[in-house]
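## Example pair
The file below holds two records. Each record gives the amino-acid sequence first, followed by its structure token line.
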Amino acid sequence: MKTHRKKAGGTGIDRRRFLKVVGGTAAAMALAPPRKAPAQPKGLTLKAIIHLYPPTGAVQGLLPAYEKETGIKVVFDQIPFGEGYAKQMAELVTGGARYDMLTPWSFWSNGEIGTGKLEVLDDYVAKAGPALDWNDIIPVQRDLFKYAGHQYGVPISSQTFLLAYRHDIYSAAGLTPPRDGVLTSDAFAANVKKLHKFQKDVYGMVWHHKPVAAAAMSWAIMFNAAGGRWFDERLNPLFNSPTAALVTEYYTKEIIPYMPPDVLTYGNTERDETYQRGLAVQQIPPLSRIPAIFDPQRSKVQDKTTFVTVPFKGLGGTKYERSPAVDEGWAFVINKNSKNKKEAFDFIVWASTREKQMRMALESAIAPNRASVLADKDVRAKHGWLAVAERQFKANLPEAQFPKIPEWGEIMEKHGNELHIAYARQASVKEALDRSNAAVVALLKERGYKVG
């Protein structure tokens, strides 16, 4: 979907609008050779806000080497996923300069860009040349952090979703382990039901639903598979369309009953732990969480897991060769108020080199941000699931990318909240989706969009 321009009002986010965006949460928070890091002023400290997850954890592991090479200390301040958007927006909207770098989720990036307080990176990228090798960064990941023709972020890794399943339990239950790209939504639902508690206390499926925007992200995978669209050509929201209702009914009736009873409270960590401990037959993790499956200290399923593309082929009568998922991810961005913008970008370049991405992929099972590393034979030999990820990237639909509007993070919060209500059967699917759609209409009109 193309970037939508407002018909009235500006694109920036002032303090009043910021309080509406995150007020509740804010109140609660009150193939080149390896290159050496560029010369930097000794004694400098760069600070970044990060959500600690496997890719940022892998970058964090490189920080001592960067300090040794340059004398620059880089400090990562960790924040919980559910607090990330509020804290980053607070830093930007209030004109803060405590942090040189931030790490927005792609859901949040357009809102952060809308503050006008992120540095445009076009000139930095152009001047970096071979040190960054920008054309090697996977295009769809670059574009997640591009707005109105300008680049604002450098992707940390690459991100989409795959189905991970226990092939040993499939075989024990007399089911043929599914091959990549063949699972229809009906077949998947039947498998989930049959495998639920086939082994004692092992659920048919586990997925994440917290924070609520993540529930909307998971829902979007099925919505895309069913051919859903977020808006019509006149910017009328379609969050209560027949396709939206079909997807929500499918998930509520066919999948959720075969998950842990408290699954609506699960975030990434709870989903990971449930699968690691062998308490669920399958899950649909983002690429960034796949390292948890191979954790030698915590995982019991390393050698029992097979990966295929997402299992919603034919949902809603669609005819896609493979079920599409979604493209999303995280990036480094630079605070416009930082006094160390050049130094911050130099660090980002250093952490994004092919050498560093190869190390992160081989040692930490991180899906790389570079096409050359994704295709590397040594990386593929060690992590065969990356070949499946490449097929999923190709199946994802350019026309189904999330809309490029600053309000998108807010919209997903509102929609995710109503999905939770529907999943918990506290309201009918129709009632929840109608409320979601009405909330999106009201938000867009308040922000000066011409809807309808």
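Second record, same layout:
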Amino acid sequence: MKSWLLPPAIVAEVTCSCLAAGLEVTLEKITEFASPATPGDPVVVGGTTFYYGVSGSAANGLYRNGSLVVGPGGSISDSEVGSAGVSGGDGSSVLVGATSNYAAPTPNNFFNTFNVITGGGSPVRILSRNTTFPGYPAPPHPGNPIGPGTIHAGQVAFLIREYSTAPRLPSAVAVTSSGGGTVTVIAKEGDPVPNGGGTFSVFDGATYPYGHNGSVIFTGRSLSRKGIYEWTGGSLSVVVDQTMAKPEGGTFTGATFGFEPVKSGLDYAFIASSALYRKRDGQITLVANSSTPVPGGTGNLTTYTAPSFSNGRLVFLGSRGTAEYGIYLDLDGTITPIVDKRTDFGVPGKTPVAYGLARSGAWAGDNAIGFRVAFSDNSTAIYKATFQPTGGKLDAQVAFTGPRTGTITVTSRNGYTYKLLRTLTLAGDDEELISNAGIGGSLVFPFDDSTYTGGKAFFRVRETKD
């Protein structure tokens, strides 16, 4: 169990704090675009927010915390860029999809590339039409061979997509280092499908490989079967396919698997037709389907997209057409809204009408996400939501002895440890200041931030079971 106390007098520059059903949510605006400009879904890396900005008074291109990183006419690895946007992140690096005239037959030809930003650096090209793909003709390749991809733990998983030349070359799922280098093809059209499912017939734009700690999961299909598959340790296995049993009865026969499965350790999440599932320790469970009531709303949720994991916590977009919509957290089997159509953003006239969430890189720590929100006044903004279960909130009191000094007193329990933590951003890495064992009574944690001159700081007390 984790419980957090955030002294509200220290949390400055936060737009609003609100209670969703079962969650205490703090919203912090990162940036806002007036119509017709709109941003894409944000990726959060090390407390920095990246997103794609489109049209309006600001230039198109990739932005970092409101500042343009690269856009049309800019340069990546000494080649001109036609467009640039974010494709995913892993907490330390961001994968940038861009079009570039690198290896182009003429300067005004632009082709897909993948590029990586690490820390506060600039994008570096790692994949292009000039990359060597094992089993394919020597580069430069015809057309645009780089398809969707994700990044995690130093590895980029991506699609080598079908070529337009005749005879058409097979599309494939592949991996490479986030620093570039050798490409490994892990599955291509014509390869055997695990579990006797024939051969892979098509990898296309609906194949969106997701990498996690050296493994890759992806949707695939043969002429007789559809499923979600995993590559790990050099071999393929089945995560779920149409032959397997559904937890609510029957099998997945006839199901269409969504293009965006995700995993965290041995925990998987995937969409099958109009339902969202998890697979943990080999067991498939239903998270939500068309019979799931809208939490705090009316009717049932009917559509699920953009599942995203962080250490076992699953968030996703859910909706019932345009009548109900939100970003939801699967909290111990209970669907709880983080933000939805009823969320008050603290500004008159700012009624949310739609949300956007990246499945790769949405998390800013285990209790915060970055997301996009469109408002009724036609503006669009990037926000960060920090949340905690209201049921786990500590019984505590805050007493200030000065503008940046004071104490936090918590009611402790035997068998638990209590730590005073400090962080310089809501989603930053915590610095442990004090650790005390529970005594079955009050524990007092003094805090003193009077010597820190870098801006605001946040103090928290965390409770963990021994």
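Notes on the second record: Residues 1-15 have pLDDT under 50 and may be disordered. The chain is about 0% helix and 50% strand.
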